[in-house]
Amino acid sequence: MPDPVNAKAKAWLARIHALPFKGRVRVMNVCGGHERTISMSGLRSALPEAVELIAGPGCPVCICPEEDVHAAIGLSLREGVTLVAFGDMLRVPANVPKREPRSLEAARAAGGDVRPIAGPREAAAIARENPSREVVFFAAGFETTTAPIAAMIAEGVPKNLSILLSARRTWPAVAMLLGAFSGKVETGFPSENATKQKPSEEAGFDALIAPGHVSAIMGPEEWRFVPEEHNIPSAVAGFEVDSLVMGFHSVLRQHLEGRAFLDNCYANVAKPGGNPTAQRLIAECFDVVDANWRGIGIIPQSGFALKPELERLDAVRRFGLDNEAARKRAGEMPPGCDCARVVLGKIRPNECVLYGKACTPRNPVGPCMVSDEGACRIWWASGLRHGAEA
To answer: pTM (2 decimals)?
Structure first.
């Protein structure tokens, strides 16, 4: 029997090829999961030549501030401290002298108690199993990770567990790319009263594919500002090939017809209003703050911070990290690394001069070659092993 998913995808691809293209159309996908599906399925080569797919800022590991990585490495080497983190974070490099561990993986090799975990509850379990040790949960991620962290806090955590929080919100990065950030801390949504604008010449894309899982948590409505304020066609899509191709067809058709709206091509998962319980837990545990993105800088209202009443859980305060020089590091990418421009969609992964040479998954120089959601790692895994000049 034919695969119904492939049949659907082929049908949507046929519709895309039938569209009357008159020039290049640049489509940015925000999510690292989208980029993985695109690369592994060969969608770039299956679409018309007029369509250019651009990987966007959808990898939390890639944009986690260097100073947070450095602080986590330092904590892991302290006597009596166990550092737990999601697996991808263990290999993210920090800018340190060669004599020092440059990643959590290297810190573990140097004697640090570093443990990879799959979810927040595992961090709490490790703390309960080791009551005589301080357990620090290095928590980096977007809204889909922040919600279960909030659920863990709401359930109650052991006294010996603290959190080194490096959580980020997705839509402010896109607003920054559009060059016209406007937001409200009290609602967490972009301004509803902003003047509509033409697409920014600096944006570098003509249409947007918004992340499905983030939309399932926060609601698809969070992305309305892109078409309504910037006149850029947008669609929420899932991670299956057919959902993505449906989203591509929607935004390409919008672009060709000269209109812009938000289409939900993941309606079976990303429901209107999102997940109210997850949103409530996030609001109860975290404040929205301006936050640093590695290699990019401060993006307004793009981060989460523990609420003052949860200060006891803050590893920065518990270990006095706010008074250390490590918290004031520049937070840049390693020398020669172009991960920041890859994250922003300004260059393709293989256009970085280090790609496939000094920087490979076995020996990553920058964070985009570490994570399964990093564009460089995804391109490498899909078979592109050389730089653009080759």
So the answer is: 0.90
